[in-house]
Amino acid sequence: MDEEDFKKVENQEVQEEIEQIKELHQEVKPANKKIIIFNFILILTIFMGLFIYMVKVDGIENIRTILHQVDYKWVVAGLICLFIHWICEAANLHIPIKKMYHNQHFTNSFKVSMLGQLFNNITPFSTGGQPMQAYELTKTGKRVSDSLSAMAMKFIITQTALVVSTIVVVLFEFSFFANLMQNYVWIAIVGFIVNIIAIIVVILAGIKKKMITFFTTPIIKLLGKIRIFRHPEETIEKLDKSIDHFREQFLFMKSEKKMVVEMFLIAVIQSFAYYSITYMVYRAFGNNGITFWQIIPIQSFLLLIMTFIPTPGSGLGAEGGFFLLFNSIFEQGTINLSILFWRIYTFYLPIIVGALFLIPTKNTSKRHS
Question: How many domains does the chain have?
Answer without folding.
Answer: 1
